[in-house]
């Protein structure tokens, strides 16, 4: 799906809100989904059986569509798959204003109308310039993009962690997955302990000493053989792993893509879910039965029946139900501090 990115889709601030819209990139996606609803029958499709599916930024987009508008209307989809959903901090109004002012300064503009009049090539250059100037600033730690969704009071009415905790999301069949070591690509391999400490303070500018004390109790440096490994663990939990837990659905740890048998099994689950709403209907013959979703519960079994959400674990040699890897003290910690971590 094509939608506006960076400064084109996610420039925010009060002047943007007064003279345009916030979260334009997400609104592009919504417009595309509504187009599908209007036209899918012309292509032999069923508007009542539309599955939205995205990974990383696409996975977070799925999250936002699940909570869009407070989930008060009928969604333009009937099921969802969010792969490794990337929940970066949602900048508050003050932070948005800082980024907007930086965009004006770096473009020699003084208004929204001036920015709109710039050629696309200049806006592309400005997009990168604003990102570079914002790195290591409040709310923009290492690995985080400065442009992203914000709480606008309309499409996104509250932080996603709050929305899912309060049940303000569309009740549709949902699959969530993630990979192992999600934080590595977004962590500085050369960072020292001192650099990592400052980075965490930039990442969570509204957190106080008690928050950071607890963070390093849960991720003690003494248990890791490098600052890189310690940082990628807490960053991966914060940005992707714990959001899979917050979505309260099935999570899957993927093995190597070189394992063709497991790849075929996982593909059959995903395609079956997208087509029928049930991962078992079209699964290949060797695929284990994936226990269905049941409302309520804590992910364990009661009287032989699956309760809550179920986890399918994929390793190099096996596939089947497993304990939820993200039901942890660490995710409880991030979940209890949504306003401090801004997601």
From TrEMBL:
The keyword Hydrolase applies. Residues 1-194 form the Carboxylesterase type B domain. It comes from the Eukaryota. InterPro entries: AB_hydrolase_fold, CarbesteraseB, Carboxylesterase_B_AS, Type-B_Carboxylest/Lipase. The keyword NADP does not apply. Gene3D superfamilies: alpha/beta hydrolase. One of its GO terms (molecular function) is hydrolase activity. Its EC number is 3.1.1.-. Keywords: Hydrolase. Coiled coil: none annotated. PROSITE patterns: CARBOXYLESTERASE_B_1 (PS00122). Belongs to the type-B carboxylesterase/lipase family. This is Carboxylic ester hydrolase. It comes from Extremus antarcticus. The lineage of its organism: Eukaryota, Fungi, Dikarya, Ascomycota, Pezizomycotina.
